[in-house]
Specification:
alpha/beta, Rossmann fold, 2 domains, six-stranded parallel sheet
Length: 342
């Protein structure tokens, strides 16, 4: 784990605003003694900007360049030790060159918690980074970069569990692909057997929902009344985890990296049902704790809900925490450990 390695280090941090995760990461790094300067990698964080950048980034090129030129001016008097970029969908080439020129000893770190299929703008710039990681095992192998799964925050380590959980299966997630079909089918089947399931579906906006409903077949099945256009707070999520017995994870069909829900379940010491086959390769996999669900055949043995959760080792638990994740990014990649699970 990180001890004094980041004390008094200056870190420039870029990450899109993602349910407040960027703030929690920055705060965690600060708690380790570092000085963090954070910027959203997008000039603006509205849905129109997101759509333009994803579909036709060149239309937004002048705004992006102006935004990053301004950042260079704002930070010119700071001597940075590290640059940490998560996803890097927008960060331009000239900026990486200029920040390195202004800070010759800076270490450039890249981490992708998305598939390169969704963030291919960052691929040509990988050569500029000193350390580069992906949460996706296939992207790690195909791009020749380090493999490092996600993590859980300290909130889940410290979760106070309910002595009488009233939710047998909990699903929390952004509405996409076949998530609603799978979770709603499970809910109906489980309730027939006397089990209780709670589902929360987040949608980024009503316009986004209407666009997806027009062009994505799976969205025609979504019950509009069950969508929330306001995301849950960390406190909301923790309260629901405390009341729950098992967590449901439904990965995007085109994404193989393990989601944050997987690691939150480990952090909270909760059982997990997941559609992601990659979980079978992981060091924490235990058939008593983790059940692989076939998204094309949703039947499974209901006995999984009974029995005690079996703790992973303290060493592995720490590796899967945000402390372990930051240690790999800033101190030691530990690829002799992680590459075994590709």
């Amino acid at each position: 784990m990180i001890t004094n390695e980041l004390v008094d280090k200056n870190i420039l941090f870029f990450c899109v605003q993602t349910f407040g995760l960027e703030s929690k990461i920055a705060d965690k790094i600060r708690s380790l003694g570092a000085n963090v300067t954070y910027y959203d990698e997008r000039p603006k964080n509205n849905n129109l900007t997101k759509v333009i950048i994803r579909a036709k980034k060149e239309l937004y090129r002048s705004k992006i360049d102006s935004y990053y030129q301004n950042i260079l001016r704002e930070t010119e008097n700071v001597n940075f030790d590290y640059l940490l970029v998560i996803r890097g969908e927008v960060v331009p080439e000239f900026f990486l060159k200029e920040i390195k020129k202004a800070n010759p000893n800076i270490v450039l770190i890249f981490y992708n918690w998305d598939s390169f299929k969704n963030t291919n703008h960052s691929v040509p710039l990988l050569r500029y980074y000193d350390r580069k990681f992906s949460f996706d095992p296939y992207d790690s192998k195909n791009k020749g970069i380090a493999f490092r799964p996600l993590y859980f925050f300290d909130d889940f380590r410290n979760l106070t569990k309910s002595t009488s959980p009233d939710i047998d299966l909990l699903f929390l997630g952004t509405a996409h692909s076949d998530r609603y079909i799978i979770s709603n089918t499970l809910k109906q089947d489980l309730e027939k057997e006397g089990f209780r399931m709670y589902c929360f579906y987040y949608m980024h906006g009503r316009v986004i929902y209407l666009i997806k409903r027009l062009f994505e077949k799976s969205f025609k099945a979504f019950d509009y009344k069950k969508l929330s256009f306001k995301s849950l707070t960390t406190e909301d999520i923790l309260a629901l985890y405390a009341r729950s017995n098992v967590i449901l994870d439904i990965n995007h069909p085109n994404q193989t990296g393990l989601t944050m829900r997987t690691f939150e379940a480990i952090g909270a010491k909760k059982k997990l049902i997941t559609t992601n086959r990659e979980v079978l390769k992981m060091p924490f996999y235990n058939h008593s704790n983790v059940l692989l669900l076939d998204r094309d055949n949703l039947k499974f043995d209901l006995k999984f809900f009974s029995g005690e959760y079996q703790n992973v080792s303290d060493e592995l638990y720490d590796k899967l925490s945000i402390d372990g994740w930051l240690y790999n990014l800033f101190v030691d990649e530990e690829q002799d450990f992680w590459k075994k699970y590709l």
